[in-house]
Amino acid sequence: MSMRNMFKGGVAVPHYKNTAGCSTVKMGVPEKVVIPMVQHIGAPCEPVVKKGDNVKVGQVIGSSDKYVSSPIHSSVSGVVSDISPRLYPGGVSVMTVEIKTDGKQEIHESVTPPKYSSKKEFLEIIRQSGLVGLGGAGFPAHVKLSPPPDKPVDTLIINGAECEPFITSDYRHIIENSDSIIDGIKMLIDVLEVKHVWIGIEDNKPEAIKLLSGITDEDSTIDVVKLKSRYPQGAEKMLIYSITGRKVPPGKLPADVGVIVMNVNSVSFISQHMKTGMPLIKKIVTVDGSAVKNPSNVEVLIGTPLEDVFNFTGGFKSEPRKVLMGGPMMGIAQFSLQAPVLKHTNALLAFDEADAKVPPESPCIRCGKCVSACPMNLLPLSLNFNVLKGNMDELHNLHINDCIECGSCSYVCPSKRHLVQSIRLGKAQLRQAAAKGGK
Ligand code: SF4
Ligand code: SF4
Questions:
Q1: Which residue minimizes the CA distance to atom 7 of ligand 1?
Q2: 119-276: CATH homologous superfamily?
Q3: What b/e string do you get for 91-108 counting C-beta neighbours within 10 Å, with b at 16 or more?
Q4: Residue 57 per-residue DSSP state
Q5: In the chain, what are the domain boundaries?
Q6: How far does the centroid of ligand 2 lie from the alpha carbon of residue 383, in Å?
Q7: What are the pLDDT digits (tens) for 164-190?
Q8: Mean pLDDT across the chain
Q9: pLDDT score of 340 more than 80
Q10: What would the pLDDT profile of 1-11 be if each residue is shown by its tens digit?
Q11: 367 lines ligand 1 (CB under 6 A)
Q12: CA separation for the pair 384, 390 (Å, rounded)
Protein backbone atom coordinates (compact mmCIF):
# COMPACT_ATOMS: atom_id res chain seq x y z
CA MET A 1 0.00 0.00 0.00
CA SER A 2 1.05 3.63 -0.41
CA MET A 3 1.25 6.30 2.24
CA ARG A 4 -1.84 8.34 3.02
CA ASN A 5 -0.39 11.68 4.16
CA MET A 6 2.40 14.00 3.11
CA PHE A 7 4.19 16.10 5.66
CA LYS A 8 4.57 19.80 5.03
CA GLY A 9 7.86 21.12 3.70
CA GLY A 10 10.97 19.07 3.15
CA VAL A 11 13.07 19.00 0.01
CA ALA A 12 13.56 16.83 -3.06
CA VAL A 13 17.21 15.84 -2.80
CA PRO A 14 19.16 13.84 -5.39
CA HIS A 15 19.41 10.23 -4.23
CA TYR A 16 22.95 9.22 -5.27
CA LYS A 17 22.27 5.66 -4.08
CA ASN A 18 25.38 4.43 -5.92
CA THR A 19 25.95 1.56 -3.52
CA ALA A 20 22.44 0.08 -3.62
CA GLY A 21 23.75 -2.88 -5.59
CA CYS A 22 26.85 -3.37 -3.43
CA SER A 23 26.45 -6.44 -1.21
CA THR A 24 27.82 -6.02 2.27
CA VAL A 25 31.47 -6.97 2.56
CA LYS A 26 32.80 -8.01 5.96
CA MET A 27 35.90 -6.16 7.08
CA GLY A 28 38.46 -8.00 9.20
CA VAL A 29 39.80 -7.12 12.62
CA PRO A 30 41.78 -3.84 12.72
CA GLU A 31 45.05 -3.48 14.67
CA LYS A 32 43.28 -1.48 17.33
CA VAL A 33 39.80 -0.26 18.17
CA VAL A 34 38.97 3.05 19.81
CA ILE A 35 35.76 2.91 21.82
CA PRO A 36 34.29 6.12 23.32
CA MET A 37 32.22 5.81 26.51
CA VAL A 38 29.40 7.89 25.02
CA GLN A 39 27.68 6.44 21.97
CA HIS A 40 24.13 7.23 22.98
CA ILE A 41 21.82 9.95 24.23
CA GLY A 42 21.95 9.96 28.05
CA ALA A 43 24.46 9.43 30.83
CA PRO A 44 28.03 8.58 29.78
CA CYS A 45 29.43 5.17 30.69
CA GLU A 46 32.39 4.74 33.02
CA PRO A 47 35.13 2.33 31.93
CA VAL A 48 34.96 -0.94 33.90
CA VAL A 49 38.32 -2.18 32.57
CA LYS A 50 41.80 -0.79 33.16
CA LYS A 51 44.93 -0.41 31.09
CA GLY A 52 46.64 -3.79 30.59
CA ASP A 53 43.45 -5.85 31.03
CA ASN A 54 42.81 -8.68 28.58
CA VAL A 55 39.35 -8.37 27.06
CA LYS A 56 37.22 -10.59 24.85
CA VAL A 57 34.56 -10.02 22.21
CA GLY A 58 31.24 -9.00 23.78
CA GLN A 59 32.70 -8.15 27.19
CA VAL A 60 31.27 -5.06 28.91
CA ILE A 61 33.96 -2.38 29.01
CA GLY A 62 31.79 0.60 29.99
CA SER A 63 28.59 0.96 31.97
CA SER A 64 26.42 3.36 33.92
CA ASP A 65 23.81 2.83 36.64
CA LYS A 66 21.66 5.59 35.14
CA TYR A 67 18.46 4.44 33.40
CA VAL A 68 18.95 6.56 30.28
CA SER A 69 22.28 5.10 29.21
CA SER A 70 23.53 2.03 27.40
CA PRO A 71 26.45 -0.29 28.21
CA ILE A 72 29.39 -0.48 25.84
CA HIS A 73 31.07 -3.75 24.84
CA SER A 74 34.38 -4.73 23.35
CA SER A 75 34.12 -5.58 19.67
CA VAL A 76 37.44 -7.45 19.73
CA SER A 77 39.69 -9.62 21.85
CA GLY A 78 42.99 -8.08 22.90
CA VAL A 79 44.61 -5.88 25.53
CA VAL A 80 43.43 -2.49 26.78
CA SER A 81 46.26 -0.20 25.67
CA ASP A 82 44.93 3.19 26.75
CA ILE A 83 42.10 4.84 28.63
CA SER A 84 41.99 8.60 28.27
CA PRO A 85 39.74 11.45 27.22
CA ARG A 86 39.81 12.16 23.48
CA LEU A 87 38.42 15.01 21.45
CA TYR A 88 35.54 14.35 19.06
CA PRO A 89 33.64 16.57 16.58
CA GLY A 90 31.73 19.34 18.28
CA GLY A 91 34.67 19.94 20.62
CA VAL A 92 33.48 17.22 23.00
CA SER A 93 36.05 15.36 25.07
CA VAL A 94 34.97 11.77 25.83
CA MET A 95 36.66 9.08 27.94
CA THR A 96 37.81 6.46 25.45
CA VAL A 97 39.05 2.88 25.76
CA GLU A 98 41.65 1.80 23.19
CA ILE A 99 42.21 -1.93 22.67
CA LYS A 100 45.13 -3.50 20.77
CA THR A 101 43.65 -6.51 19.09
CA ASP A 102 45.13 -10.05 19.17
CA GLY A 103 43.27 -11.28 16.08
CA LYS A 104 41.87 -14.30 17.94
CA GLN A 105 38.38 -12.84 18.40
CA GLU A 106 37.81 -14.99 21.49
CA ILE A 107 34.25 -14.61 22.71
CA HIS A 108 33.54 -13.60 26.31
CA GLU A 109 31.78 -16.16 28.51
CA SER A 110 28.89 -13.75 29.13
CA VAL A 111 27.83 -14.10 25.49
CA THR A 112 25.08 -16.73 25.60
CA PRO A 113 21.55 -16.69 24.15
CA PRO A 114 19.33 -14.86 26.66
CA LYS A 115 15.96 -16.14 27.91
CA TYR A 116 12.98 -14.11 29.04
CA SER A 117 9.52 -14.85 30.35
CA SER A 118 8.20 -11.32 30.88
CA LYS A 119 8.30 -7.89 29.28
CA LYS A 120 10.48 -6.67 32.15
CA GLU A 121 13.07 -9.37 31.49
CA PHE A 122 12.96 -8.70 27.74
CA LEU A 123 13.64 -5.00 28.28
CA GLU A 124 16.52 -5.77 30.66
CA ILE A 125 18.05 -8.01 27.96
CA ILE A 126 17.70 -5.18 25.43
CA ARG A 127 19.36 -2.82 27.88
CA GLN A 128 22.28 -5.17 28.51
CA SER A 129 22.70 -5.75 24.75
CA GLY A 130 23.86 -2.15 24.31
CA LEU A 131 21.22 -1.46 21.64
CA VAL A 132 20.64 2.19 20.83
CA GLY A 133 18.65 3.71 17.98
CA LEU A 134 20.60 2.64 14.92
CA GLY A 135 18.92 5.11 12.61
CA GLY A 136 21.24 7.88 13.74
CA ALA A 137 19.97 9.34 17.03
CA GLY A 138 21.47 6.76 19.40
CA PHE A 139 18.60 6.79 21.91
CA PRO A 140 18.80 3.76 24.27
CA ALA A 141 16.36 1.16 22.91
CA HIS A 142 15.18 -0.12 26.32
CA VAL A 143 13.95 3.40 27.14
CA LYS A 144 12.21 3.79 23.80
CA LEU A 145 10.48 0.42 24.27
CA SER A 146 9.24 1.39 27.77
CA PRO A 147 6.60 4.10 27.33
CA PRO A 148 4.93 5.18 30.59
CA PRO A 149 1.71 3.28 31.48
CA ASP A 150 -0.43 6.39 30.85
CA LYS A 151 0.73 6.42 27.21
CA PRO A 152 -0.58 3.21 25.66
CA VAL A 153 1.10 2.32 22.38
CA ASP A 154 -0.96 0.58 19.70
CA THR A 155 1.32 1.04 16.69
CA LEU A 156 4.88 0.05 15.89
CA ILE A 157 6.53 1.72 12.89
CA ILE A 158 9.66 0.20 11.40
CA ASN A 159 11.77 2.86 9.74
CA GLY A 160 13.28 1.73 6.46
CA ALA A 161 12.91 5.12 4.76
CA GLU A 162 16.63 5.91 4.51
CA CYS A 163 15.93 9.33 3.00
CA GLU A 164 19.47 10.79 3.12
CA PRO A 165 21.37 10.78 -0.18
CA PHE A 166 24.18 8.21 -0.63
CA ILE A 167 23.28 5.94 2.31
CA THR A 168 22.18 2.40 1.44
CA SER A 169 23.19 0.45 4.56
CA ASP A 170 19.56 0.00 5.71
CA TYR A 171 18.54 -0.99 2.19
CA ARG A 172 21.26 -3.65 2.07
CA HIS A 173 20.21 -4.80 5.52
CA ILE A 174 16.64 -5.33 4.27
CA ILE A 175 17.81 -7.23 1.18
CA GLU A 176 20.29 -9.38 3.10
CA ASN A 177 18.56 -9.87 6.47
CA SER A 178 14.83 -9.74 5.79
CA ASP A 179 14.11 -12.82 7.92
CA SER A 180 15.81 -11.31 10.97
CA ILE A 181 13.85 -8.10 10.50
CA ILE A 182 10.50 -9.92 10.43
CA ASP A 183 11.55 -12.16 13.34
CA GLY A 184 12.51 -9.09 15.44
CA ILE A 185 9.20 -7.41 14.58
CA LYS A 186 7.26 -10.49 15.73
CA MET A 187 9.11 -10.49 19.06
CA LEU A 188 8.20 -6.83 19.57
CA ILE A 189 4.53 -7.48 18.66
CA ASP A 190 4.39 -10.10 21.45
CA VAL A 191 6.20 -8.03 24.04
CA LEU A 192 4.65 -4.60 23.33
CA GLU A 193 1.20 -6.01 22.49
CA VAL A 194 0.81 -3.51 19.64
CA LYS A 195 -2.17 -3.84 17.32
CA HIS A 196 -0.41 -3.02 14.09
CA VAL A 197 3.04 -2.72 12.54
CA TRP A 198 3.88 -0.58 9.54
CA ILE A 199 7.21 -0.91 7.73
CA GLY A 200 7.88 2.40 5.97
CA ILE A 201 10.18 2.37 2.93
CA GLU A 202 10.72 5.17 0.37
CA ASP A 203 9.56 4.44 -3.18
CA ASN A 204 13.14 4.65 -4.51
CA LYS A 205 13.73 1.15 -3.04
CA PRO A 206 11.24 -1.00 -4.96
CA GLU A 207 13.21 -4.23 -4.39
CA ALA A 208 13.06 -3.79 -0.61
CA ILE A 209 9.33 -3.01 -0.76
CA LYS A 210 8.69 -6.08 -2.91
CA LEU A 211 10.75 -8.38 -0.72
CA LEU A 212 9.17 -7.41 2.60
CA SER A 213 5.67 -7.16 1.09
CA GLY A 214 6.05 -10.73 -0.15
CA ILE A 215 7.11 -12.02 3.26
CA THR A 216 4.35 -10.17 5.16
CA ASP A 217 1.59 -10.75 2.59
CA GLU A 218 -0.30 -13.27 4.73
CA ASP A 219 0.18 -11.42 8.00
CA SER A 220 -2.70 -9.04 8.75
CA THR A 221 -0.74 -7.36 11.58
CA ILE A 222 2.21 -6.20 9.46
CA ASP A 223 1.96 -3.91 6.42
CA VAL A 224 4.65 -2.46 4.19
CA VAL A 225 4.03 1.20 3.31
CA LYS A 226 5.49 2.78 0.18
CA LEU A 227 6.60 6.29 1.15
CA LYS A 228 7.18 9.17 -1.25
CA SER A 229 10.92 9.88 -1.55
CA ARG A 230 11.12 13.29 0.00
CA TYR A 231 13.68 14.39 2.58
CA PRO A 232 13.34 14.14 5.64
CA GLN A 233 10.77 11.35 5.24
CA GLY A 234 12.72 9.17 7.70
CA ALA A 235 12.57 11.68 10.58
CA GLU A 236 10.32 10.19 13.27
CA LYS A 237 7.66 12.89 13.30
CA MET A 238 7.39 12.98 9.50
CA LEU A 239 7.28 9.19 9.29
CA ILE A 240 4.51 8.93 11.89
CA TYR A 241 2.43 11.57 10.13
CA SER A 242 2.96 10.06 6.67
CA ILE A 243 1.86 6.62 7.81
CA THR A 244 -0.76 7.21 10.52
CA GLY A 245 -1.81 10.85 10.09
CA ARG A 246 -1.00 11.39 13.79
CA LYS A 247 0.86 14.60 14.65
CA VAL A 248 3.43 14.45 17.45
CA PRO A 249 3.04 17.82 19.24
CA PRO A 250 6.13 20.01 19.76
CA GLY A 251 8.21 18.79 22.68
CA LYS A 252 6.38 15.45 22.79
CA LEU A 253 7.47 11.92 21.88
CA PRO A 254 5.99 9.31 19.50
CA ALA A 255 4.51 7.47 22.53
CA ASP A 256 2.35 10.55 23.13
CA VAL A 257 0.43 9.59 19.98
CA GLY A 258 0.55 5.83 20.67
CA VAL A 259 3.52 5.01 18.44
CA ILE A 260 7.00 3.53 18.83
CA VAL A 261 9.43 3.85 15.90
CA MET A 262 12.33 1.42 15.47
CA ASN A 263 14.90 1.27 12.69
CA VAL A 264 15.07 -1.85 10.46
CA ASN A 265 18.59 -2.50 11.75
CA SER A 266 17.44 -2.35 15.37
CA VAL A 267 14.70 -4.96 14.99
CA SER A 268 17.06 -7.21 13.06
CA PHE A 269 19.64 -6.85 15.83
CA ILE A 270 17.04 -7.84 18.45
CA SER A 271 16.34 -11.08 16.59
CA GLN A 272 20.03 -11.92 16.20
CA HIS A 273 20.81 -11.01 19.82
CA MET A 274 18.09 -13.29 21.17
CA LYS A 275 19.59 -16.17 19.17
CA THR A 276 23.26 -15.60 20.02
CA GLY A 277 23.55 -13.25 23.00
CA MET A 278 26.14 -11.20 21.09
CA PRO A 279 25.80 -7.53 22.07
CA LEU A 280 26.00 -4.62 19.65
CA ILE A 281 29.60 -4.74 18.36
CA LYS A 282 29.31 -4.22 14.60
CA LYS A 283 27.58 -2.03 12.02
CA ILE A 284 26.92 -1.98 8.29
CA VAL A 285 28.34 1.28 6.96
CA THR A 286 28.00 2.82 3.47
CA VAL A 287 31.33 4.20 2.24
CA ASP A 288 30.91 6.66 -0.62
CA GLY A 289 31.57 10.20 -1.87
CA SER A 290 33.50 11.78 -4.73
CA ALA A 291 36.91 11.12 -3.10
CA VAL A 292 36.27 7.40 -2.51
CA LYS A 293 37.79 4.95 -4.98
CA ASN A 294 35.36 2.05 -4.50
CA PRO A 295 31.97 2.95 -3.02
CA SER A 296 30.88 0.00 -0.84
CA ASN A 297 28.80 -1.30 2.00
CA VAL A 298 31.01 -2.70 4.73
CA GLU A 299 30.31 -4.60 7.96
CA VAL A 300 32.65 -2.97 10.46
CA LEU A 301 33.52 -3.66 14.09
CA ILE A 302 32.54 -0.73 16.30
CA GLY A 303 35.61 1.26 17.29
CA THR A 304 37.43 0.69 13.99
CA PRO A 305 39.28 3.90 12.98
CA LEU A 306 37.75 5.56 9.90
CA GLU A 307 41.10 5.44 8.10
CA ASP A 308 41.09 1.64 8.30
CA VAL A 309 37.58 1.47 6.85
CA PHE A 310 38.45 3.75 3.92
CA ASN A 311 41.67 1.78 3.31
CA PHE A 312 39.74 -1.50 3.38
CA THR A 313 37.51 -0.26 0.53
CA GLY A 314 40.54 0.72 -1.57
CA GLY A 315 41.31 4.18 -0.24
CA PHE A 316 40.81 7.52 -1.93
CA LYS A 317 40.99 8.43 -5.60
CA SER A 318 41.58 12.09 -4.73
CA GLU A 319 42.50 14.05 -1.63
CA PRO A 320 39.49 14.00 0.73
CA ARG A 321 38.63 17.57 1.73
CA LYS A 322 35.54 16.78 3.73
CA VAL A 323 34.75 13.58 5.61
CA LEU A 324 31.28 13.07 7.04
CA MET A 325 29.98 10.50 9.48
CA GLY A 326 26.38 10.13 8.27
CA GLY A 327 24.69 11.59 5.22
CA PRO A 328 25.29 14.92 3.50
CA MET A 329 22.21 16.51 5.10
CA MET A 330 22.68 15.60 8.77
CA GLY A 331 26.15 14.02 8.92
CA ILE A 332 28.85 15.28 11.24
CA ALA A 333 32.11 16.55 9.69
CA GLN A 334 35.18 14.73 11.02
CA PHE A 335 38.51 16.42 11.66
CA SER A 336 40.50 13.20 12.02
CA LEU A 337 40.47 9.84 10.26
CA GLN A 338 41.50 8.32 13.59
CA ALA A 339 37.94 8.84 14.86
CA PRO A 340 36.12 5.51 15.26
CA VAL A 341 32.98 3.95 13.81
CA LEU A 342 30.24 4.26 16.46
CA LYS A 343 27.08 2.29 17.23
CA HIS A 344 24.89 4.60 15.16
CA THR A 345 27.32 5.23 12.28
CA ASN A 346 25.49 4.36 9.06
CA ALA A 347 27.75 6.04 6.49
CA LEU A 348 31.23 7.44 5.93
CA LEU A 349 31.38 9.93 3.07
CA ALA A 350 34.53 11.58 1.74
CA PHE A 351 34.34 14.43 -0.76
CA ASP A 352 36.99 16.00 -2.96
CA GLU A 353 37.81 19.69 -3.15
CA ALA A 354 35.08 20.57 -5.66
CA ASP A 355 32.31 18.95 -3.62
CA ALA A 356 33.62 20.09 -0.25
CA LYS A 357 33.63 23.78 -1.11
CA VAL A 358 31.41 25.81 1.21
CA PRO A 359 30.04 28.77 -0.76
CA PRO A 360 30.29 32.13 1.00
CA GLU A 361 27.19 33.40 2.79
CA SER A 362 25.42 36.44 1.41
CA PRO A 363 22.73 38.54 3.06
CA CYS A 364 19.24 37.10 3.47
CA ILE A 365 16.95 38.26 0.68
CA ARG A 366 13.84 37.28 2.64
CA CYS A 367 12.63 34.94 -0.08
CA GLY A 368 10.94 32.64 2.46
CA LYS A 369 12.24 29.44 0.86
CA CYS A 370 13.67 28.24 4.17
CA VAL A 371 10.25 28.70 5.82
CA SER A 372 8.50 26.68 3.11
CA ALA A 373 11.11 23.91 3.40
CA CYS A 374 10.98 23.58 7.18
CA PRO A 375 9.01 20.43 8.08
CA MET A 376 8.69 21.67 11.67
CA ASN A 377 6.93 24.95 10.78
CA LEU A 378 9.79 27.05 12.13
CA LEU A 379 11.23 30.34 10.86
CA PRO A 380 14.85 29.44 10.06
CA LEU A 381 15.73 32.97 8.88
CA SER A 382 14.55 34.44 12.19
CA LEU A 383 16.35 31.76 14.19
CA ASN A 384 19.54 32.53 12.28
CA PHE A 385 19.14 36.28 12.86
CA ASN A 386 18.52 35.91 16.59
CA VAL A 387 21.36 33.44 17.14
CA LEU A 388 23.74 35.89 15.49
CA LYS A 389 22.36 38.72 17.63
CA GLY A 390 22.51 36.62 20.81
CA ASN A 391 18.78 37.17 21.52
CA MET A 392 18.30 34.13 23.76
CA ASP A 393 14.75 34.94 24.85
CA GLU A 394 13.65 35.26 21.25
CA LEU A 395 15.13 31.82 20.45
CA HIS A 396 12.76 30.29 23.01
CA ASN A 397 9.82 32.18 21.50
CA LEU A 398 10.79 30.86 18.06
CA HIS A 399 10.82 27.26 19.42
CA ILE A 400 14.43 26.63 18.49
CA ASN A 401 14.42 23.31 20.35
CA ASP A 402 11.77 21.93 17.98
CA CYS A 403 14.33 22.05 15.17
CA ILE A 404 15.27 18.50 14.14
CA GLU A 405 18.45 19.78 12.42
CA CYS A 406 17.40 18.22 9.11
CA GLY A 407 19.23 20.88 7.08
CA SER A 408 16.36 21.41 4.61
CA CYS A 409 16.48 25.17 5.21
CA SER A 410 20.21 25.42 4.47
CA TYR A 411 19.76 23.24 1.39
CA VAL A 412 17.24 25.57 -0.28
CA CYS A 413 18.69 28.93 0.82
CA PRO A 414 19.79 30.89 -2.30
CA SER A 415 22.02 33.07 -0.09
CA LYS A 416 23.82 29.93 1.20
CA ARG A 417 23.26 31.04 4.76
CA HIS A 418 24.57 28.61 7.38
CA LEU A 419 21.13 28.22 8.91
CA VAL A 420 21.31 24.80 10.56
CA GLN A 421 24.83 25.43 11.87
CA SER A 422 23.67 28.61 13.56
CA ILE A 423 20.63 26.83 15.00
CA ARG A 424 22.88 24.11 16.47
CA LEU A 425 25.01 26.86 17.99
CA GLY A 426 21.94 28.58 19.42
CA LYS A 427 20.74 25.35 21.00
CA ALA A 428 24.16 24.73 22.54
CA GLN A 429 24.21 28.27 23.95
CA LEU A 430 20.77 27.77 25.49
CA ARG A 431 21.90 24.47 27.05
CA GLN A 432 24.95 26.21 28.51
CA ALA A 433 22.79 29.03 29.88
CA ALA A 434 20.38 26.47 31.42
CA ALA A 435 23.31 24.60 33.02
CA LYS A 436 24.44 27.86 34.60
CA GLY A 437 20.95 28.41 36.03
CA GLY A 438 19.65 30.67 33.30
CA LYS A 439 16.63 29.93 31.14
S1 SF4 B 1 16.05 30.94 2.29
FE2 SF4 B 1 17.87 32.13 2.85
S3 SF4 B 1 17.63 34.04 1.75
FE4 SF4 B 1 15.63 33.04 1.73
S5 SF4 B 1 14.57 33.84 3.57
FE6 SF4 B 1 15.60 32.00 4.20
S7 SF4 B 1 17.56 32.68 5.00
FE8 SF4 B 1 16.74 34.35 3.77
S1 SF4 C 1 14.87 24.97 11.03
FE2 SF4 C 1 15.54 22.95 11.68
S3 SF4 C 1 13.80 21.61 11.27
FE4 SF4 C 1 13.48 23.50 10.09
S5 SF4 C 1 14.38 23.06 8.09
FE6 SF4 C 1 15.98 24.05 9.29
S7 SF4 C 1 17.11 22.35 10.20
FE8 SF4 C 1 15.15 21.48 9.49
A1: 381
A2: NADH-ubiquinone oxidoreductase 51kDa subunit (3.40.50.11540)
A3: eeeebbbbbebeeeeebb
A4: B
A5: 119-276, 369-435
A6: 10
A7: 999 999 999 999 999 999 999 999 999
A8: 95
A9: yes
A10: 666 678 999 99
A11: yes
A12: 10
